[in-house]
Amino acid sequence: MIFKRMKKDVELNGEPLPLHLTGEDGEVWMEFPGEVVAASRQAINRMMRTEPFPQCLSTISAVRQEGVTYLSRAIGTVLAEDMMERVCVLELNWWWPADYPSIMVNRPGIAEVLKGNATLEEAIMPTSMENLALIPAGNAAGDQISKFSSSDHLQEIIIALSEQYDHLILDLPSVITTSDAIPLAALGTGLCLIVRQGVTPPQRVQTALDDLDHLKIMGVILNQVNISTPSFILNYIAQD
Amino acid sequence: MVRIAILRLLESYFRHRWLYLLPLLIFIVAGAIYVSTVERKYVSGGILYVQNDSYLGSLTSVRDSNFSWLTPAQTTSAQISDLLQTDSFVRSLIEDTRLESKMSLGDQVVFETIDEVRNAFWLYTIGDNQVGIQAFHENPQVALELSSAAVDRYIQWQINLDRVQSGAAEDFMADLIVTYEADLEVARSELTEYLMAHPAPLRGDRPELEQLEINRIQGKIQLAGQRYSSALEREESARLATAQAEADIRQTYFIVDAPLLPKNPNISLRQLAMSGMVFVVVGIIFSSVGIAGSALLDNSFRFPVDVHHVLDLPVLSMVSDMRPKTSRLSSLRQRIKGPAKEERKQNITGTITDEDVLEAVA
Q: Which residue in A58, A187, B20, B193 has the fewest CB atoms around it within 10 Å?
């Protein structure tokens, strides 16, 4: 009985704590369970094995709904929490922008900055963490997106943000479904590909990688992993 | 590659394990039902030895011994099989068994009984001269009666076949004997009448003319007598052949192993276990095909080794799926159909709507 309780205590202590992405007012925008925090931490550490973490990391996927926005925010939050460095998550997915609380509907995004309707400072959304900020994509029309994607102004904004923050996490649209993802991905100094486990066809991912082969690809994050094989069996088979 | 295949097969199985176990379970249930309901039939069999040609047959030459490519055992087996196709032979078998009581229960029962008996036999040959006759039935007594009846009735059929040949000869000779006997009597009467009409003289010899006539009539009697005697002899030979027929057949076909009353049903526990195992093996094959098919059709990344093998990139981490199952299903559905139009409009930071596209084109 004593042994059981001790073992349970150890397990609880070893479990990573969840993190919350909250606004300045304390409203929870997003919750990251302990497993997601641990996986994000692992991804960050693996990227930092041989070299420093990229100053501007592009997170991208081959197709839509792979969880790029979620993981880019998770990586940004964990990075800000663990390394105590200034981190900004910049959303450049004008095709399928992320959801925000209704109170921020009229808040300007990077699109408005590019249009000249708002300043960069106005677009930055501070969070409850002092060293973490978010910049939403904003509202861009179809003909504006291509211009924005390859504009010098956007590059200037990136440079400006790079000076202001230690790390930028770019939330990019999918490569296959949008034509402007490739120039956007080139804005980053490193690229991380998000692939949904058990869903995304390898051919699609390979096609996307062919388009991104000129960039520095840090690796792949398998998202929404659901392995049914019992771990005691998997322990006998190497999976790397 | 082998590692990937093993991992994918395992994942394919554990993802829908109950689905893949279903064929196995179905076949196990079917096997259990089969084993529990299989008819336990008793088998009674005898072995009949068929001689190429009997000794008596060769002496009397009543039986034909034409050359044939078929062995005597094959010929006999074919004959019995042919006879079993006739209702008369099958009915004669039923007469010798307790199934006879069913023959008065209406046409349908009679038809079923005849069909049952017809299909209750298994014939096989052992070498050139031995024929095995086996009868199957739920009742061991009936199995014994059927196999015994089959052997006896076949031999009797052969005897009857030979009797028909020798009986025809006997009848023919019997008809001739009557004719020859009548001819002999006529000749004898003629001699008596002539002698009465021409008595012998008191002195001396008969006239030469009378003596010649008496000699002629006596010759006629002698000839009729000889024909009559010959016919009698042939009739006796025919009778002898008839009598020999049964002995001849009994010598040609004799029972090596008489049918015995079976003590145990034909299906043993081992056979039942083997039958059950066949069901299990078929179930395993179906389940395996399902698992392998699912693994082959799974066109996605499942394990880090897949990513490394296909993309040659490291896997930075694996983020567990924290969503509830219903959310996963709706996400999958949405992924297949695409996002709803309303959902696009509801994005608070703005997005490209159909109106935007039209405006841009304009």
A: B193
Q: Do B315 and A209 touch (CB under 8 A)?
A: no
Partner residue opposite B349 with nearest CB, options A109, A209, A222: A109
| Distances in whole angstroms, Cα of residue A6 to Cα of each of A11, A17, A140, B346 | 9, 19, 56, 50
Report which of A62, A92, A43, A59 is spatially closest to residue A209, judged by C-alpha positions. A62
The mean pLDDT of chain B is 82
pTM of the model: 0.59
Task: With CB atoms and an 8 Å threshold, state whether B14 touches A136.
Answer: no
Contact B162, B248 (CB under 8 A): yes
Q: Which residues contact A131 (CB under 8 A, 6 or more apart)?
A: A80, A84, A85, A86, A87
Q: Which of A63, A175, A227 to mutate to test the interface with B (most CBs of B within 10 A)?
A: A227
Q: Which tokens sit at B93?
A: 């078998």
Report the complex ipTM. 0.85
Neighbours of B226 (CB within 10 A): 12
Q: How many CA atoms, within 13 angstroms, populate the side-chain half-sphere of residue B210?
A: 12
What whole-number distance in Å separates Cα of residue B55 and Cα of residue B252?
9
Contact B311 A229 (CB under 8 A): no
Above 50 in pLDDT, residue B349? Answer: no
Q: 3-class secondary structure for A43-76? A: HHHHHCCCCCCCCEEEEEECCCCCCHHHHHHHHH
Helix axes B269-297, B17-37, angle to 10 degrees: 160
Q: What angle do CA A132, A136, A138 make, to 5 degrees?
A: 160
d(Cα A33, Cα A17) in Å, to the nearest integer? 7
In terms of CA atoms, which chain B residue is nearest residue A46? B316
Q: Is B173 exposed, middle or buried (0-12, 13-18, 19+ CB in 10 A)?
A: buried
Confidence band, pLDDT 50/70/90 cuts, at residue A166? very high
Beta carbons of A95 and A49 less than 8 angstroms apart: no
Could you give the 3-state DSSP secondary structure of residue B44? strand
Cβ <8 Å between B15 and A228: yes
Q: Is A34 on the interface with B (CB under 8 A)?
A: no
pLDDT 10s digits, A15-74? 778 888 888 878 888 888 888 999 999 999 999 888 888 999 999 999 988 889 999 999
- What one-character DSSP code corresponds to residue B102? G
Question: Contact A219/B314, CB-based, under 8 Å?
Answer: yes
What is the residue type of B84? L
Level-2 CATH architecture, domain A16-225: 3-Layer(aba) Sandwich (3.40)
